[in-house]
Amino acid sequence: MNRSNFNALDYERRYQEGYGVAYPESHIIRIHRHILDWELDVRSGYIFDFGCGLGTHLKYFTTHSFVPYGCDTSHTAISYCKSLMPDFESHFFVTPTVPDLSGLLRVREFDIFLSNQVLYFLSDHDIRNIVKQAYSLVRPDGVFIATMMSYSCWYSRYITETIGDLKRVEFSTPRCNDSNLINFKHQDELVDLFYPFRKIHLGSYGSHIREEEGSTDHWIFVGLRD
To answer: What class does CATH assign to 3-150+186-224?
Structure first.
């Protein structure tokens, strides 16, 4: 089985079983308030969410004058997006893991391209493919926002093998008994990975809720198209 398809099929199963966030995550709200709104004065426009899941973050942005577009590999997730935002039903697409976005979208100049907790399921080659497409789809001075999993995330304790750019993670905790393929990154790798977007911020977020698991550290990259 294709490595990226392994993760896509796994997440379709999870969505069918009720997976997904019902409320926007705090780091997305902070990016909106602290960077998009306060720093960049991006307060409306078109936003595309690559790997949008249930559409929770896009729904949040619609309440702040943004027009949402999104794609996901999960039929279950996209069906939910359409029911959540019926006025924008035609803006959501089921796609392959690495789609050709230019054939789907009527909008050619997005103000924001977002990919939250998705790209680290892809190889470097596939990430660069998505970044190249993102660069062609955002307007000059458009914003690119992506998160990647850090090696300091507790998931890295359970790496069992390396498969190209991906690490097989076999969880074995009281809460988790599952498997994933994840592309962990160090902070200093991200500027090159997300080129040609120009970095304006490279931060992180995470929480440590359960003692036996550890921190959920992720990087946050925010870049601009020059």
So the answer is: alpha beta
Confirm whether pTM is higher than 0.90: yes
Nearest to 4 by CA among 146, 117, 123: 123
Nearest to 99, CA basis, from 8, 210, 212: 8
Q: How far apart are CA 195 and CA 128, in angstroms?
A: 8
> Helix or strand or coil: residue 85?
coil
Smallest CA-to-CA distance from 47 within 127, 116, 128 is with: 116
In whole angstroms, give the CA distance from residue 122 to residue 125: 8
The one-letter amino acid code at 207 reads S
Instruction: Give tens-digit pLDDT for 104-150.
Output: 887 779 999 999 999 999 999 999 999 999 999 999 999 999 999 99
Measure the CA dihedral 74/158/153/168, to 10°.
Answer: -40
C-alpha–C-alpha distance, residues 86 and 74, integer Å: 18
Q: What is the CA radius of gyration of the chain?
A: 17
Tell me if residue 225 falls in helix, strand or coil.
Answer: coil
Asked whether 134 and 50 are in contact (CB, 8 A), the reply is yes
